[in-house]
Design brief:
- By secondary structure, the chain is of the alpha/beta class.
- It contains 7 helices and 15 strands.
- Strands 3-6-9-12-14-15 form a 6-stranded mixed sheet. It has a 5-stranded parallel sheet with strand order 1-4-7-10-13.
C-alpha cells in the first residue's frame, strides 16, 4: 500500500476499535495516537529515503502535538491503533505488526547501548495494556495480551496472556483483556487469610487445615518464581 492509503486506513481505526467514537470530529481533536501513527508514516518514509534530519524534525513536532514519542525508524504494520496515547514511547528498532492495539503509557524500550536490534517486536494482533513496559530485543507472539503496568523482559509465544511485574504468563489461550486477574490483589487476600488463621491459632481457636483456592494460586506463583 502507498503512504496515503495507509494513512486513510489509520484514520479509520477509531471508528472500528473505540466504542467512544462519535464522528470524524473526534478523530481530528481527540485521537492523538491516530495522528501520531499518521505522522509516523511520513517520517518513516523520509527516514528510509535518507532524509533522517527531516524525519526527526517531523517526529519531534508530532511528539509535541500528540505526546507520543515514536522514533521515525520504528516499523509499524497496518491498522496499528494507539488509544489515548499520552506517554507512549516506541524506540528506534521496535517492530509492530498489523492490528496491534496499544494503550497510554506503554513503553517499547531498549536495555542495550549497542547499535543493533535492541527494542521489542510485536507480532500481529498484540494488545498492550496501559502503562505496560516491554523491554529489550524480544518477540511478543501473535495475539498476545499484556496486562496494564506489566513489565515484560522475556519473549512470549503466540496467544499468551501476561500480567505483573515482572510479567508472568497466566494463560496460553486467547483470554479477554477485561478478564485479566489482579495477581497482587489475590496474593494480598491470601496473606490476610493466612494471618487470620495464625491469629486464630494463637488464640486457641485452631486454624483450619483445608487448602483454599487462593493457597493453590499462591503455590503456583511460587513455582513461577522458581523458574526465573
Amino acid at each position: 500500500m502507498n503512504i496515503f492509503s495507509l494513512i486513510k486506513e489509520d484514520l479509520a481505526q477509531p471508528k472500528l476499535k473505540d466504542p467512544a467514537y462519535n464522528g470524524f470530529c473526534d478523530v481530528i481533536f481527540n485521537y492523538p495516537g491516530t495522528w501520531a501513527v499518521a505522522n509516523h508514516r511520513i517520517a518513516h518514509a523520509l527516514w528510509n529515503k535518507g532524509f533522517k534530519c527531516l524525519a526527526r524534525i517531523i517526529a519531534g513536532i508530532s511528539n509535541a502535538l500528540t505526546r507520543v514519542d515514536l522514533h521515525p525508524a520504528a516499523q509499524l504494520g497496518r491498522r496499528v491503533f494507539i488509544d489515548h496515547a499520552t506517554g507512549v514511547v516506541i524506540g528506534e528498532t521496535a517492530i509492530i505488526g498489523d492490528d496491534c492495539l496499544i494503550y497510554q503509557g506503554v513503553t517499547l524500550g531498549g536495555v542495550s547501548l549497542e547499535k543493533t536490534k535492541r527494542h521489542p517486536t510485536l507480532r500481529e494482533g498484540v494488545v498492550v495494556g496501559a502503562g505496560a513496559k516491554i523491554l529489550g530485543n524480544i518477540t511478543i507472539g501473535k495475539g498476545c495480551k499484556i496486562g496494564a503496568n506489566a513489565v515484560v523482559t522475556k519473549p512470549m509465544d503466540d496467544f499468551c496472556t501476561a500480567v505483573g511485574n515482572p510479567a508472568r504468563i497466566i494463560s496460553k489461550c486467547d483470554a479477554p483483556l477485561n478478564k485479566l486477574p489482579d495477581i497482587e490483589k489475590k496474593l494480598f487476600l491470601y496473606l490476610l487469610q493466612r494471618l487470620n488463621k495464625l491469629e486464630n491459632g494463637l488464640c486457641g481457636l485452631g486454624a483450619k487445615t483445608e487448602r483454599t483456592e487462593l493457597e493453590k494460586e499462591f503455590e503456583n506463583f511460587l513455582k513461577s518464581l522458581e523458574k526465573e
